[in-house]
Amino acid sequence: MVTENTHPRRDFDNLLKTALKHGFWDGLKLFLPALWEAADKNKPVEFLDKELQKVTFDLEGGANRLDMLARITLAKGGEEYILCHQEYQGEGGGDLPTRMFRYMAAIYLLHSKSPVGIAVVMGSRPNGEETYYHSDNYGVKVSYAYINYFVLNTDDEILLAGDNRVGLVLYAAKCAHRSGRDEDKKFRYLREISDIWAKRGWNPHDKRVILEAAEYLLNLTDENYVQRMIEYLENLQMNEGDREMYKSIFERVYGERGRERGREEGRLEGRQAGRQEGRQEKALEMAQNLLAEGISPDVIAKTSGLSRNEIQSLVNG
Predict the structure, then answer these.
(1) What pTM was computed for the model?
(2) Which of 140, 159, 186, 229 has the most CB within a 10 Å radius?
(3) 43 - beta bridge partners?
(4) What is the C-alpha to C-alpha distance for residues 64 and 83, in angstroms, rounded to an integer?
């Protein structure tokens, strides 16, 4: 039986943002190795969530909020601001370079420092769209270049190298893109990612964040494949803590979908019962009017769909 995916889109937005925060250094190593090398990774990363609320735009056709703003310390002294935007718009989406420029300008106004901009592009972009911002207004030229990290164009080996937590989440995103609605492909990719996940020595919280994102991206909709995945997990080698974690996430994801399906079936049955009740009331009203006009009960039964007993109860009533 095939069921619909009930996860709202913003759930994955939040899951990926959480993965980027918990695996910040892993993400920076993927997106901008030179800055990763220059950073003092022994100093804490400061995530500027309050500043994010100030960097808000309403741009037609595109996302209207920056996803992450962080401040890091450099090994040789000083600091850098990093703005990271997750771009989901496909071909025909909003003008990404313009949005990245406006994000940068707003952060500069707040901190008097140009941030390092990174756009993590999860899908394809419109043909001919530039990978940087530029304008020329009567010879007054402005240009802003930022890092474009095109997930679909990144080799699998790069994403899966070492123990990179963000890399595994982005690999799951690639697998979801390749799979489309093919349940067999989703099943095989989810099985592969589960194997990798079980072997990683990440802390429990990070493992939970990564697994939730992967489960969301490769969400199985065919209950036969869900059952096959359950059987596979029973034989997958992992420690008991990981097994319980995976089991709880799996049950929550697919159990909630089953509960939602049950609620929807209940709503559908209620609507059908309501329509049936409405049709019955209209038929009874019509029968009463025909009786008042002197039409025989037998004729009314044939035209209204009511039984002879129902019409007789109106006559007696």
Answers:
(1) 0.73
(2) 186
(3) none
(4) 14
> 3-state DSSP call for residue 155?
coil
Phi, psi of 235 (to 5 degrees): -105, 0
Whether the per-residue pLDDT at 260 is higher than 90: the answer is: no
Domain regions of the chain by residue span: 32-153, 261-316
Task: Kindly tell me if the per-residue pLDDT of 130 is higher than 60.
Answer: yes
Helices (H) and strands (E) in the chain, counts: 13, 7
- Enumerate the H helices of 55-117 as residue ranges: 96-111
Rounded distance between C-alpha atoms, residue 61 and residue 298, angstroms: 63
Contact 71, 44 (CB under 8 A): no
Measured CA to CA in angstroms, residue 148 lies from 108, 115, 132, 288 at distances of 20, 15, 9, 73
CA angle (248 as vertex; 245, 250 as ends), nearest 5: 105
Q: Token pair of 79, please?
A: 């600091």
Return the SS3 of 12: helix
Under 8 Å CB-to-CB from 25, ≥6 apart: which residues?
36, 39, 41, 45
* Count of all residues that appear for the chain in the document: 317
Cα 235 off chain centre by: 29
Alpha helices in the chain (DSSP H): 9-22, 24-31, 33-38, 49-54, 96-111, 156-159, 165-179, 183-199, 204-217, 223-235, 240-292, 297-304, 308-316
Amino acid at 179: S
The per-residue pLDDT for range 262-280, each reduced to its tens digit, is 444 444 555 555 556 666 6
Cβ-based neighbours of 226, under 8 Å, separated by 6 or more: 220, 254
Neighbours of 101 (CB within 10 A): 20
